Amino acid sequence: MTSDAPAVATIVVIFAIIDERLQVLLVHRDADPDAGSWALPGGVWDGSRSLDDAAAAKLVEETGASDVYLEQLFTQSGLDHTQPSVAIAYFALVDASAVRLRAEPGDAWRPAWLPVGELPRLAFANNLVIEQAVERVRAKLDYTNIAYGLLPERFTLRELQSTYEAILGGESLDRRNFRKRMLGNAVIEPTDEVRREGAHRPARLYRFTTREPVFL
Amino acid sequence: MTSDAPAVATIVVIFAIIDERLQVLLVHRDADPDAGSWALPGGVWDGSRSLDDAAAAKLVEETGASDVYLEQLFTQSGLDHTQPSVAIAYFALVDASAVRLRAEPGDAWRPAWLPVGELPRLAFANNLVIEQAVERVRAKLDYTNIAYGLLPERFTLRELQSTYEAILGGESLDRRNFRKRMLGNAVIEPTDEVRREGAHRPARLYRFTTREPVFL
Predict the structure, then answer these.
(1) Is the pLDDT of residue B140 over 70?
(2) pLDDT tens-digit map of B56-106
């Protein structure tokens, strides 16, 4: 290789539903350019392992989550204005209740979840990367079981609908149509369990018929 | 950058329908490793333009075609066993009748179309890249107008169906259902023109309602 080979990085858009909103995990950059500003987790790819493995390792490092939905999004040039570079972006859907964020010395440097609709200007045009990831997830909601990544293994229909609504940016879905569609697609199935919450009628728990990606 | 930065290349899977079969454009590699064997067109990316522009330029260089469907497929590491590298793969759908293949000195080095079902072992695990491109195109047939890239502006319903069948690997589609679906989706519309071929009844010419990618 010549010394002017482009820089290669992997970055990961990590989504979770927190407070009924779609949120993305961001870290503070610890080096220039844009030291101190928020950015997607990622790092230089050195070729010692596959791109998929590098993205999965970054995900585990940040969240502790390994059994999650991880997909390559796209590769973009020109995100870093200081040098020729390509960034291979992935996105992941994680169940927030299973996440343990990586600790950092000093509160100011801790990773944090931010709602996708309320992001500041991020380093490296990362806002654009997140927008494209959101678009991909929304598109896939319609024809795959992709939402399984955001939920625990067992969940109520209300939690499932709330997850869909969060991904769609707060849009309200008709309860009856939603349930009919999800059950009709054989995407989910009832379990024997129910959950009791306060004085409400116990809610049936459901699970995805498969946690492998399937087309509907 | 350090001198051990990975190599970055763009490669393009260029599809056309020729002799009613889905074929892919291949070139002979002119350098080691695997000099002389068939490979996808591509080249080192030097950072002087965007990845999209580099892929489009390669497509024009090989086929002369510019107004075509071009989409990023995925990025893969490890295709080249001689050094750490990433290859950003694109795929393109071109109308074979509009293509003028790049000329090379000596017949043995001319680019050529090969049917996707009958490929030899290609350099750099390119067979795998082509398989994934075929899979993407087939999946998109169902919910986009992606086939517009493979056809001239005006075409008969028979040509359209034949194009779909070629992409699906020779599967026969029911003529009546196919027409009903294409017209029902508002993907195509009739024009005022007909085409006369031999003693047959003149065939109506159709066009895509849009040649921009749309979801059905």
Answers:
(1) yes
(2) 999 999 999 887 899 999 999 988 888 899 999 999 999 988 888 877 666
Preferred mutation among A1, A3, A48, A90 to probe B, highest tally of B CBs within 10 A:
A1
pLDDT in tens, B168-215: 998 899 999 999 999 888 889 999 999 987 778 899 999 999 877 776
Residues in chain A with pLDDT values less than 50: 1-3
Strands B7-18 and A203-208: unpaired
Stretch 157-196 of chain B: residues touching chain A, C-beta under 8 Å:
none
Query: What angle is formed at CA B147 by the lines to CA B146 and CA B150, rounded to 5 degrees?
Result: 125
Distance to chain A for B111, nearest Cα, Å: 27
Whole-number Å distance between alpha carbons of B138 and B132: 10
Single-letter amino acid, residue B31: A
Where do we find the tokens 């990622």? Answer: A42
User: Which amino acid is residue A43, in one-letter code?
Assistant: G
- Please answer yes or no on whether B4 and A1 come within 8 Å at the CB atom: yes
Q: What is the dihedral of CA B70, B73, B75, B79, to 10 degrees?
A: -100
Size of interface A-B (CB pairs under 8 A): 80
Burial category of A49 from C-beta neighbours within 10 Å (exposed 0-12, middle 13-18, buried 19 and up): middle
Q: Answer yes or no: are the C-beta atoms of A130 and A118 closer than 8 Å.
A: no
